[in-house]
Amino acid sequence: MGVGDRRRLRRDPRRSARLRLRVLARRARPARRAARLERAPPAHAPRAVLRSGAGVRAPRVGGDPLRGDQRRARLARLDDRPRPGAPRWRVSAIVLEDVRKRYLDGATRVDAVAGVRLEVPEGALWVLRGPSGSGKTTLLGLMGGMVTPTSGAVHVLGESLTHLRDHHRTAVRRTKVGFVFQDLSLIDGMSVRENLLLPLVPLGGATKAQADRAEALLTRFGLGDRIDTRASRLSGGQRQRAAIVRALVLSPPVLLLDEPTAHLDTDNAREIVDLLASLRDEGTTIVAATHDPRLADDPRVDRCVSMRDGEVVDD
């Protein structure tokens, strides 16, 4: 106790208890610091020592403190897949959980998709079937992150698209999902090669490997001799195949198609169905919206989901 403390005690004896506690705490401070340094591993300690939890308060998992080998064993068990209670979208390519998309038509609320629950397995070929206005295209847009749901949750290959910001959703869509629009969205004034490589411009342009892959896909799909032809000079079946190749340039694991066989003759429609079946056999997850029985009734389709008024009515 210093001289100043003794003087304050003489002036006000009521403060003596507080001052004594303060002095005791000040004296105990170096001892506590020394004890911490003694328990903590040195800065040059091996990484295994630092991982073991020496000198560090063990995290509580499920209310029990775990250290070292116990904690690593617990984490290893948690990482086993599949396991009971695992999130379903870890084993499914696409998961829709009570998804709803509502539009306002004046004062009227229109549910384009009304509370749909679906799980598309990896490597499956699914067809969404229904009349015009049944919600097939809107549901495809929800699966691919093109449309934001009013309520519910959408998961694509373990990635939740529901609460992502636009630029994050765009990044997921660019790398994981290929989309073939109903109007194909080919630029008529460009060649087939330029149309295929155009989606790579935001990524800094096509690499040699990507350009080679595009040419290999065109050759496989029967368009090897049309690579420098303008899109306006392609037939309907050739335009459809070129649009599919463009969606596959970045090797997306999920492919979504809107009316892929519409306005095609029987031979071209059969070629498109054959291509989709071969892609499915290679592990690509495919969902196609159609009202064409040539695709919907094909025996190679794993599941046909019927829609009406935004709801799944039969499959």
Shape: elongated
Give the number of helices: 11
Q: What is the CATH topology descriptor of the largest domain?
A: Rossmann fold
Order of helices and strands: HHHEEHEEEHEEHEHHHEHEHEE
Task: Please list the strands of the largest sheet in the order they lie side by side.
Answer: 8-9-10-5-11-12
Number of strands: 12
Largest sheet: 6 strands, mixed
Rg calc = 31 Å
β-strand percent reads 15-25%
Indicate the CATH architecture of the largest domain. Answer: 3-Layer(aba) Sandwich
State the gist of this model.
By secondary structure, the chain is of the alpha/beta class. Helix content is 38%, strand content 22%.
Keywords:
six-stranded mixed beta sheet, 12 strands, four-stranded antiparallel beta sheet, single chain, alpha/beta, 2 domains, 315 residues, Rossmann fold
General description of the model:
The protein has 315 residues and is of the alpha/beta class. The protein folds into two domains: 3-56 and 63-78, no CATH class; 89-314, Rossmann fold, CATH 3.40.50.300. It has helices at residues 3-11, 16-39, 47-51, 68-78, 136-143, 166-176, 192-197, 208-220, 236-248, 266-281, 293-296; strands spanning 60-61, 64-65, 92-105, 108-121, 125-129, 151-156, 159-160, 177-180, 254-258, 285-290, 303-308, 311-314. Strands 8-9-10-5-11-12 form a six-stranded mixed sheet, sandwiched between helices. A hairpin with a 2-residue loop joins strand 6 (151-156) and strand 7. It starts with a helix and ends with a strand. Residues 43-66 and 74-90 have low confidence and may be disordered.
